[in-house]
Amino acid sequence: MTRIKGGTTANKRRKNILERAKGYRGLRSKKLNYANEALMRAGRYAFAHRRDKKTVFRQLWIVRLNAAVRENGHRSYSTFIAKLKKNEFALDRKVLAQFASEHPEIFARISKQVV
């Protein structure tokens, strides 16, 4: 049986890495080692920032809720959430923030029931 060298597989791997690094500046898009290094770093940042995005959105919902809660006569966001839990409302912060920004009349009714 003849020997098969791995040239096609290696070329495909290199080509794939360089294609993924397309648009990077300088040698990061031209040279394999630099491109691979840049992709590894980009992957680490992407992983971390996917986690950070969840925190950022939760903070945004809390800010929106706090503003709406104070407009509807409650003292603060934290007391409003405590009363929600005490009254066993099953709405999360995302839904409440959406009501507060897009449907203020619905949010006003919810906040009146929470008192």
| Main sheet makeup | none
Structural class: mainly alpha
- Total number of beta strands: 0
Distance between the termini: 83 Å
Whole-angstrom Rg = 26 Å
Indicate the multimeric state.
single chain
- The CATH topology name reads c-terminal domain of poly(a) binding protein
Give the overall shape, derived from the CA principal axes: rod-shaped
Estimate nothing, just give the exact number of structural domains.
Answer: 1
**CATH architectural arrangement:** Orthogonal Bundle
List the SSEs and their pairings.
Layout (H helix, E strand, L loop, with lengths): L6 H14 L11 H40 L5 H10 L6 H10 L1 H11 L1
Report on this model:
The chain is mainly alpha-helical and 115 residues long. It has one domain: Ribosomal protein L20, C-terminal domain (c-terminal domain of poly(a) binding protein, Orthogonal Bundle). 74% of the residues lie in helices and 0% in strands. The chain has 5 helices and no strands. α2 crosses α4. The longest helix is centred in the middle third of the chain and has 40 residues. The radius of gyration is 26 Å and the shape is rod-shaped. The N and C termini lie far apart (83 Å). The mean pLDDT is 95.
